Amino acid sequence: MFKRIFHNFSNSFNFHYSQEGWRYFYGSFYYISSIKRTWEASRDDCLQKGAELVIINSQEEQEFIRQYKKSAWIGLTDRVTEGVWKWVDGTPLTTSFWRSGEPNNYYGRNEDCVEITNNGGWNDLVCENEINWICEKKMAPLPWER
Ligand SMILES: [Ca+2]
Ligand SMILES: [Ca+2]
Ligand SMILES: [Ca+2]
């Protein structure tokens, strides 16, 4: 009974977000932009939506995000201290999925923001580049997902 009430609730919730292009996966909703912006402007857009640039916490989440098959900003940066990668929620990077040879500050450029590339590997990139982005809105996990 309890489970069914929650399920109905999450279905209508899910439906509402799906209508607006959000996809649900294990406790979070995800949104990929249809336009391109700088990392900072992308982050602002996510914050305005009550979300954040996506924070990839696990292999499962990485696999889910790579299914978009698009080059897009994620919520990872080394803008504060070069070489020290931090997520936008302030947590340090532990599990990473860099494309081979990355991060590389390509040709000495100051690449401080991170994109997931269309085949899933991460790449550091100049933050002023304009690409798509992915927002994550974290919800409390449903009781049977804990
Ligand atoms: Ca996440
Ligand atoms: Ca850098
Ligand atoms: Ca790079």
Per CATH, the superfamily is Mannose-Binding Protein A, subunit A
Q: The CATH topology is what?
A: Mannose-Binding Protein A, Chain A
Which ligands, by name, code or SMILES, are bound?
calcium ion
Series of H and E elements: HEEHEHEEEEE
Percent strand equals 15-25%
Shape descriptor reads globular
Number of strands: 8
Distance between the termini: 18 Å
Judged by helices, strands and strand pairing, the structural class is alpha+beta
* Rg over CA atoms: 16 Å
The total count of helices amounts to: 3
Secondary-structure arrangement, i.e. CATH architecture: Roll
Organism: Dicentrarchus labrax
GO molecular function: carbohydrate binding
Domain C-type lectin: 25-136
InterPro entries: C-type_lectin-like, C-type_lectin-like/link_sf, C-type_lectin/snaclec_domain, C-type_lectin_CS, CD209-like_CTLD, CTDL_fold
